[in-house]
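Page header: ASSEMBLY MODEL / two components / 234 residues total.
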Amino acid sequence: MKATLDLINQMQADGVIGEYAIGGAVGATFYLDPVATLDVDVFVALPTGGGGLVSLSPIYEYLKARGCVEKEEHMVIGGWPVQFLHPCDALETEAVAEAVAATVEEVGTRVMSAEHLVAIALSTGRAKDHTRIAQFIEQDAVDRKKLRSLLERHGLTSKWQKFENAYLGGGHE
Amino acid sequence: MNERAMRGKKEMRKRLAALSFSEKIKILEKLRDRSLAIAAAGLRQQTAKSSSLAQDVKDQQ
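Prediction written out in full:
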C-alpha cells in the first residue's frame, strides 16, 4: 500500500488530481477491524469535459506512463487495484473535503470521516454497506451527534430510521 | 454461538480495531492475497473438472 499511496500522492503533487480521500472498505478499516477487500476506492474530483462527462484519462495516462496496468475499472498501483471515483453528490463531495489525515507506513494520506463513510454506506444501501454500518455502530466508531447532523443535511434521516428499525432494533442510542 | 465465544470475538475485533492503520493495512493485504489464492484454486479446480469432463466425453465418443 505504501507504493500505491506514494504514487497517488505524487500524482497529486504533479497536479493531475486535487484533494482525494480513501473511502470504501479500506477507509472503514481506519476505524474498524480490518474489512476484507480486493480494491481501494479513491474519491477525487475529476475535471468534466464537454456534456458534463467526467474524464479519467489524465489519471490513466499518468499512471500508465509509470508502469501501472489497467484492469477492468481499476488501475493496479503498487499491487493494489485502485478505483478512482468522482464524487457523485454533495455528500461525497463533502466527504472528500472533510477527510481526515492518516498515515500508512509513514506515507500521508486522507481517509473519509467515520460519519461520512456511514452516511455513504447508508445512501448506497447494499447488503455489505448495511453490514459495515452495523460494525461502526457496534464498535462505537461514530460520533452520533455528528452523524445525525450529517444525515439531516443530506436528506438521509428517514433512510436512517428505516435502517435503525430494521437492523438496530429501532432508536439505537 | 454461545455467549463466551461471542464475547471473545468482540474482544478480538476491538483489539484489531485498535491497531495502527499501517498494521491493519498489512492484515488487509494478507486477507486480499488469501482471497485471491482461494479464488485461483477454485478456478483451477473448475478448469481441471471441465478438462476431465471433456476427456470423459471424448472417451465416450
